[in-house]
Amino acid sequence: MTAVVALLSVLLSPAVAQAAPGESRPVYSYDHAIRESVWVDTRLDGDADGRTDRVAVDIVRPSEPARQGRRIPVIMDASPYYSCCGRGNESQKKTYDATGRPVQFPLFYDNYFVPRGYATVLVDLAGTNRSDGCVDVGGRSDVQSARAVVDWLGGRGRAYTARTGGSPVTAGWSNGSTGMIGKSWDATIANGVAATGVKGLKTIVPIAGISSWYDYYFSQGAPLYDSGPDGLADAVDSPGAHKRCAAVQRKLAEGAPRSGDWTGLWTERDYVRHADRVRASVFLVHGLQDLNVRTRNAGQWWDALARHGVERKIWLSGTGHVDPFDYRRGAWVRTLHHWFDHYLMGYDNGIERAPMADVERAPGTWSTDRRWPAPGTAATTLRPGPGSAPGVGVLGTGRAPQGATEAFTDDPALSEADWAAGIDRTTPAKVGFSTGPLRAPLRLSGSGSVTVTATPSTTTAHLTAVLVDLGPATIRNYAADGEGITTLDRRTCWGAGTKGDTGCFKETAADTAKVAHTVFSRGWADLGTYADPHKGRPLTPGKPYTLTLNLAAADHIVPAGHRLALIVAGTDAGLIDPPASRPRLTLDLSRTAARLPLTGGAAALARATAGAAPPHVPGTAPLDGLAPPRTLSRLPYAG
Q: How many helices (H) and strands (E) in the chain?
């Protein structure tokens, strides 16, 4: 018996959780973990009921460290979706027993990390599930909902055992080190909290997160959705919040005019401007074909963090709005484990010295880079020129002759898929320009732009610019319901489980499509923002205007033998809303150019295009691609 007791004391000692070099081990009991709920005081009164709001915080933590007098770090996911919509590929929700004690936590974080010595904390944003207050869609209330919990975990806040009244409770079991993780709105809150510079937030892992809410709803004045943040708040508000939060709803509606003009509401929800406050490391994950939380949000956040020297890492997949647990499960769990071990437990496991970027090149095939954008990438100018038929032009380095023009008429029924399929044909709704077949691969890594000089025929006009890889490929079917994945019936388990929370999840496989062209970067704008990106103006028909469209971040290799194309058109059906009129726009080619992030810069472009054959064969058949983008959810979650 003495020997058994001695062995158990070793197995349960604090040192064993850190026994393997560079890796925490699952030595604590998940079945006997402490499951509890507290309500943290946000110090805000968002619903104006005369008392500060409390947000519900559900906790699963191993019991052994507390008995040993050892404090532990926290992995936290703050979300509005725990009761309305669910989390993960299976839309899991929180469940509770008859006494209100947590039973099931969505996702695998608790199953995997609690046995390894972490606490998992799930926070209901104000106005959702069991919390007080009101949802304000990325504003002060949303962010403070989570920041107040980070403060409480660090001994700087107040919490209670009940939503009203109750006894004060402290987080004496927490060592004050918190990592935030989550997808979509949850990821957005992680970005927002990090941008406050809150003490104790050591790392964030934003998956498909928003960095500026304006850029979720608009792109340079062009509306991306037909509703605003008031509709989003209405979708996630708890029944009680629906009754008490009418004033907040009005402020959201009034502060986000459908004109696309920038207002104070958007300034409050722009986390990019506070990137200099970020103390946490950032592991950013995004789908390069995410047409919900579009990739501009990832690119501008990444660039801002880089400017301020934030320690960071990035994964870019070929999927749409999908969690890496559902497209690269084993590698994701392993990498995330090492990331949290390093930044929350202090392991010297080399994760911060590993390649900075992982990029999916084809379904299931990945490459790495020591930095991102790729080393040697430089902004390189490509220019459109007239070709062999109207609207069918060339893309190269030479400036078009003075007076050279191309024109198109906005057709809101057509999308980028339609335009790309007809790249080599004269069609009325777009103009396209392409290189000849490349002699060498050409990589674009980062964010580019397209400057156009356009003359409209009406007082309103929207513009779209897209980059296209013209050539055969097998890609993830990002336009389908699964956005690049198929969910299977069989399950695998990731961590420990109980009857109420098994830790087992449905497996997935890549959903692929064979295509003859791939749209890989996009930009949209209202031409009325030509003078001020924050405010649109009526256009004068017949007058030329110059505007620069910002392209979404991308990392794509156009293979040798393929062509690189630029398409300029009006409304991108399914992705932006049309203007009030159907303008005809005439482009001045001599004053139109693309600045693209080419790895190797101008020299790489010269090698790839030297001696290229003429790019077009007019009258060729349409190039097959994915179906036009479906009408997207106005909720930035999709699992």
A: 14, 30
Q: What Å distances lie between residue 596 and 199, 208, 555, 588, CA to CA?
A: 38, 23, 11, 19
Choose, from 145, 184, 434, 447, the residue flagged as catalytic: 184
- Which tokens sit at 582? 């159907």
Catalytic position from the list 77, 290, 326, 526: 290
C-alpha to C-alpha distance for 279 and 340, rounded to whole angstroms: 16
Q: Is 616 a residue whose pLDDT tops 60?
A: no
Listed in sequence order, the residues at least 6 apart from 386 whose beta carbon sits closer than 8 Å to its beta carbon are 393, 394, 400, 404, 406, 589
C-alpha angle with apex 269: 266 to 273, nearest 5 degrees? Answer: 95
CA distance 445 to 589: 25
321 noted as active-site residue:
yes
Cβ atoms within 10 Å of 8's Cβ, excluding its own = 10
Average pLDDT estimate for 51-71: 97
Cis peptide before 62 (omega within 30 of 0): no
- Whether 177 is a known active-site residue: answer no
Residue 638, Cα to own-chain centre: how many angstroms? 12
Cβ neighbors of 309 (< 8 A, separation 6 or more) are none
State the DSSP string of 304-327.
HHHHTT--EEEEEESSSS--GGGT
Encoding tokens for residue 511? 């959903």
Distances (CA, A) of 74 to 18, 121, 377: 16, 7, 38
Higher pLDDT, residue 23 or 19? 23
> In the structure, what pLDDT confidence band is assigned to residue 18 with cuts at 50, 70 and 90?
very low
Question: Are the C-beta atoms of 471 and 561 separated by less than 8 Å?
Answer: yes
Q: Taking the CB of residue 68, how many other CB atoms lie within 10 A of it? A: 12
Q: Looking at 286, 321, 462, 562, which residue is catalytic?
A: 321
What sign does the dihedral 278-284-288-291 (CA atoms) show?
negative
Q: What is the chain's length?
A: 639
Q: What share of the chain is helix, strand, coil (3-state, %, to 5)?
A: 25, 30, 45
Q: Check if 215 is active-site.
A: no
Write the pLDDT tens digit of every residue in 337-360: 999 999 999 999 999 999 999 999
